[in-house]
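Folds abound. Consider this:
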Amino acid sequence: MLKFLILTSSALVAVALSSSARAQSTTQITKPVFCVYDGEYEPCGSMVDNDIIISATGVVEKPESTGHAITVIDRQTIEQRQAVAISDLLATTPGVTVTRNGGLGTLSTVRIRGAEGEQTLTLIDGVRVNDPSSPGGGFDFANLLSGSVERVEVLRGPNSVPWGSQAIGGVVNVVTAAPTDRFSARANAEYGSFDSVFANAGISGKAGRFSGSFNAGYLRTDGISAAASGTEPDGYRQYGGTARIGVDITDAISLDLRGYYANSRVDIDGFGFTPPFLPVDDAEYAETQEIYGYAGLNVGLGRLKNRIAFTIADINRDNFDPTFGSAPSFFARGRSERYEYQGDWRASGAIRLVAGAQRENTRFTDGSVFKSRGTTSVYGEAILTPIARLTLTGGVRYDDDSAFGGHTTFGANAVYSLSIGTTFRGSYAEGFKAPTLYQLFGPFGLGNPNLQPESARSYDVGIEQNLVGSAITISATWFHRDTRNQIDYNAATFTYGNIARTRGKGLEVGLNMRPSDRLTLSGSYSFIDSINRSPGANFGKQLARRPRQSVSASIDWETPLKLSVGATVLAVGDSFDDAGNFNRLDGYVVAGVRAELPIGNRFAIYGRVDNLFDEKYTVVRGYGTPGRAAYGGIRVKFD
């Protein structure tokens, strides 16, 4: 029944949006009365400030109750920064590195604390969206736009106890707009450089026992040449939408439906046929369709909250080269379906126990290979508050995979707060990443069915200090992670093998200041030492595309005339483009400025200039990056 409901709701979103398209050719969280956060359904008061996170344990809790390092990006920040791609916001987050193979819409990789991009677990509204058909099983952030996103949590460090495979580098949890207690609507449209159009609209409300939130968006841009040497612009287009529906069946039982749909097309450049085989202009393009869905039933039995859910992630990718005809030159189909139960028992004010069971089925095909697998998992967590201001969390997970057998994961963390505004945090965490279906059974003999999971052990310690009340917050976290059995291509056997080891260690520093209601300042510094520990010629060398140092700073000021102005600067240090450290990528500094002016209570006009000083830089060898670009738009809200 749950599977039918979610497939139906996702299909309705997809059909409605595709029809429309054909006709066109670390901050405070504000929560509405009706709240659904990744399976946790709670009435939460009328538009009150509520700092909450779910990425640490899989259940709703406050940031002060976890020892994990977590950054939260809320809707206010998204609109204030005028961000289009979520990856651009993540690039200014401590411990996070982002690379993009060209302009907007091209392959975008998010690495946390120097881990592989495929070792970042990504969730959208409680659905694991990592692509089972891609070789490494990573999520491509290229198509994750900001229009319907309400909040993003970034948990840095392994956390496989509640989430399972792939949470080695960390977890990115994306939450879209949830239903509100009364009717509200918002929309924005902007136009700018590269003939770019970005428009979004959404409505939300509640009537009796029913509530809903619906959002749709459209983006089109001529873009830049993906190939740094090219002159032909490579465009990008996406239409998509999200839907969330809640039904209060009784005061203790509720139904929660969520759907996400995106249809994207991007022009890409192929590789030259002569050394050094870098990208060159050509007519290739790629199309991607993403459908994610969630259906959950929540049952409250006093202190025990129960949730049963079904989630689905369906990703279709097609590449085309018109030189060889209209048929796809490559295609991949990936799907994952997950059935899960979670129990959350608040035994007392000092003891909270969480336990769950999951069954995940994944499959992929590229036309030559069709493979599937199943994983059954159980986990348990204890969240204890033995004394005031101290919270201890520990957990264990067991996964039984039809491909490689069993794997056990542990994790524990602690947080202690002093009355003077000082908070100490520490964690030990394990993460693992199961070999992908492609790595196990890939075509042309590449697959190796004997692969074992990648595994990581990590520990970190941190301190946070609030000054002048909470007007100033300073934080620092030191981390160390060792990853073993990392899967890589083995040139000696011409197959994938568990042959790689890596180490990541470093320091993350954050600063948030709010000297007045009109002025905010934030900044971060990251030192990430990512080293190859695999025996051989590359032992001790820096991992590719991991700059050791990065700094970001933002300032926003609302003038007495209500005009808001702001700026963001991102400075990234040198890195290498290859495992042998032969091709150095020079560091760079990019700056952007922005402004917004309200017109009455409902309307606002805004604009920004990205890459203000027209910096020429490279993040992936052979691929271009945008120069100076300007955009302007209008925003409207009704509530």
About this structure: The first strand starts at residue 30 and ends at 31.
